[in-house]
Amino acid sequence: MARQARTARAQEVDAAEKNRPLVEDIRLLGRILGDVIREQEGKEAFELVERVRQLSVAYRLKKDASAGRVLDRLLKNLSGDHMVSVIRAFSYFSHLANIAEDRHHVRRREHHEAQGHLQEGSLAMSFERLAAADVRADEIAHTLDRAYIAPVLTAHPTEVQRKSILDAERAIAELVHQRDGQTTARDLQQNEALLRARVTQLWQTRMLRTTKLTVADEIENALSYYQSTFLRQIPRLYQQIEQALPGHPVANFFRMGQWIGGDRDGNPNVGAPTLRQALARQAEVALRFYLVELHSLGAELSISNTLAPVTPAMQALADASPDHSPHRNDEPYRKALIGMYARTAATLQQLTGTEALRHAVPPQNPYQRSEELLADLQVIADSLRHHHADALIAPRLAPLMRAVQVFGFHLATVDLRQSSDQHELVIAELLATARIEPDYCALDEAARRTLLLKLLNDARPLRVRNHDYSELATGELAVFDAAREALERFGREALRHYIISHTEDVSDLLEVLLLLKEGGLMRGVLDESATTQLIVVPLFETIGDLRNAEPIMRQFYELPGVLPMIVRSGAEQDIMLGYSDSNKDGGFFTSNWELYRAETALVGLFEPLKAQHGLTLRLFHGRGGTVGRGGGPSYQAILAQPPGTVNGQIRLTEQGEVISSKYANPEIGLRNLETLVAATLEATLLTPAKSPPKAFLEAAAALSAGSFEAYRKLVYETPGFTDYFFAATPIREIAELNIGSRPASRKASRRIEDLRAIPWGFSWGQCRVALPGWAGFGSAVENWLGSDEGPRKDRLALLQKMYRQWPFFRTLMSNLDMVLAKTDLRIASRYVDLVEDKKLGKRIFGAIQAEWQRTSDVLSLITGDAQRLASNGALARSIEHRFPYLDPLNHLQAELMRRYRARREGDPQVQRVQTGIHISINGIAAGLRNTG
User: Does the annotation mark 156 as catalytic?
Assistant: First the structure.
C-alpha cells in the first residue's frame, strides 16, 4: 500500500510539473482579465467576481457543501446588472482558458516530438505502424492516389461565436504562443502589455449579435478558418506525407467541403443567390491568397540570369510577361511572376468582380482554369531544380503549388442539400403544369418510379415557357440553373454532391435526377448515354431510414440505366448517414448500432459493384460536436468503423463550436487534419477485414433493442416529458438567440419529433444533463445482464471482452465516459425548479437521475474504472481546471431564466436579463467545447 501511495504521489507530482506552464498561462490570463474588470467595472465588480470564483472553487474542488449554499444565495440575490457582469467575466474566462489549453496541447506535442515520442493519431505514429505491418511506401502512395478525405464545414443553430471575438482570441493565442520563446523581462513585459490590450478589446467587444445571423455572415465566419488555418496548414500536411514517402508522388486526396450557401434544408434564406455569393467569396479568398504568395515569391526569387541560367520554358514564361521594366531585364523569375500576378488579378476580376490590392502592371489575360496557373508555377519549379536552386522551392513555391492543386479557384466543394418533400412538391407542380400527371403526390411508390423513369428517358424538358411557377418551384429550379453556371465558371470541383435529406424511398433519388436533367446537369437520357455532373447523395437519418438504406440503394441500382449512368459519370457513389436525427429518434447506443449495421450492409451491396464495374462507395458521416450527435474524437471514430467501410474514402461534417475548437488555432488545426489522414490510412491498411465475433454482434443487437425501448419510454412515452424539456432546458431562449440563420424547429410546434436534433442536443448540454449522449444504455445493460448470478457473470465477462477487443464498442464506451464526466446533475437540479408543475419536475428528474446512475454503474462494470476519465488524464485535468469557472454560469443562467419567464410587460430589466441569458449560453458552450 505504501508503495502504491508513493507511486500515486509521484504521478501527481509529474502531472503537476507537466501542467505547470498551463497553470501559469491560465493564472496570467485570469489575472489580466481581473485587472481589466477592476479597471473597467470598478473594485466592487471585481471583488464580486473574485468572491464567486473562490466559492465555486471551494464547492467544486474542495467539496465544500457550505460554500455551495453561500454561492447559491449570493447569486440569487444579485441585481440584473451584477449578474451580467459576473456572466461576462466567467464567459471570457472560459474563452481564455481554451486558448491556454490549446497552447499547452501544442507545447506538449512539441515536447514529445523533441524526445522522439510518437503520439497516437499523428502521421508519424501511423507511418511507423504501417512500416511495422510491412506496408510498403508504394502501397501507401497507391492508397492515397485513390483516396478522398474531406472535412465539411457546416453552419448550424449552435454556432454562438462572433467573428470579431474569434479574431481577438486568435491574436491572444498568438501572443501566448510568443511567450514560450521570450526570456528577457522586457520582452515578457511588452508581451503582457499587448495581452492586456487584446483582453481589453475583448471586454469592450459585444459578445452577442444584435441581429439574426445571415447566411452571408455564416459564409464569412467559415472563410476565416481558411485564412487562418486551411490555406497554409493543408499544404504543410501534404509536405509531411511527402517527407514520409520520398520518391513517391502524393495525389490530391485531401479536400475541403462546405455546406454554407448550398444547404437549403429547412433554411428559407438559402437559394441561388447565396450559392452564387458563397462560390464568389470562396474564389476571392483563394485568389487573394495566391496573389499575396505570388507577390512574396517575386520578392524572394531575385535571381539574375547573369549568375544562374534558366530553362527555355522559364525564359519563354518571362518573355510572355507584360512587365517591361529595365530594372528586371536580367531577373526572369520576377518578370514571369509579375505576369502571373497580372493574370491572377484578372482572374479575380473576372470571377468575383473585385480588384487586387496592388498592380505592377494592369490585370490582363485571366487564367481560365487553375491548372494553367499551376503549370506556370511548375515551369518555375523545374527551372530552379535544373539550376541548383532546389532550396528555394520548399519554403513558399511548393506550398503554393499544393494550395493551387487542392483549392483551385473554388477553395472548397459546396454541397447542395434539400429535403425530399420539397423535391416532391416541385416535381408535382412541373408535372401538373405540363399536363403529364395532375396529382403526382397521390401516386404510390411503384407508380412514381414508373413515371419518373419514363421522364428520365424522354429528352424533352418539363418546364413550360413563360408559366408563372410558385415561389418554391421557381426558387428550387433557380438553384439547379445556378449550379450549372457555377460548374462552368469555377470548375468541376466547385460542386460535386447533391444531398437528399429524409431519403425514404427510391423515388426520392429519381426526383433529383429529373431535376438535374431539367437544370442541364444530367445530359442524355437514362436508357442510352446519360451522364450526371453531380453525385446524387441519399441522406439516411432516422432509425427506420438507416434500416432501409441497403434495400433502397439495391433497388435504385437495379433500375435500368442507373448503374451505367453512374459509371459513365465517374463511378462514385456517396451515401450520407445522419447521426443526429437517429440519436434523437432512438438514443445514443441504438443510433450507433444502426449506423454500424447500415454501413456493413451497404459495403456488402457495393463490394460486387466495385469488383465488376469499378464503382467507389464513399460514406459521408453527418457527425455533430456532442456525443449525442455522433461527436467524440475523430481518430477513434474512424478506426471504430466496420471493417471494409473506409477504404480511403471518407467525408465528415465539422459543426458548431467544434469548428472553432479544432481549427481556430493553426497548429491545433494541423493536428486535427493530420488525425483524419492517420486514422483513414490505418483503417484502410491495418484494420482486419473479418467481422467481429458473432457473440459480440448478438450482444450489441440485444443492447440496442433494450436501449431503444428504454430511451423511447423516457423521452416519448413519459407523460409530460415534452413540457419538462421546454421548461428545464434553455431551448426557448436558444430559439431567440441570434446564433444561426436556420430556425430551431422544422415546424411551428412543441413536438420533440419536429425539433431539430441540433438544438435538442445543445439544450441538454447547456443544463449539464447531456441526455442524448447516454440515456437508455444503463437500463439496457441491466436488463440484459439479468439478476441470475451465473448468466450475469458470463454476460458481463462478454461485455468486458467486447470493450477490450472491439474498437466500435470501446469507442462508444470511451465517448460515454467523456459525456458522463461532463454532466453534473447537481447543477441540472437547479433547472428543475423552472418547471411550474413541481410534481412533474420531481418525477421526471428522478427518472433521469436513476437512468444516469444506472448508466454510470454499468460503465464502471464494463471498463473496470470506478472513476470517470480514469484512462484520459488530460481531459480529467482539463475538466478540473475548467468546471469551477463554468458552474457559476449555470447557476446564473437558471436564475435569469426564472426571472425572464416571470417577467411582466414593460419591465425595464427584461432586456438586461435576456442579454445575461444569451451571454451565459455563449460561455457554457465555450466551456464545454464540443457542443455543436
Answer: yes
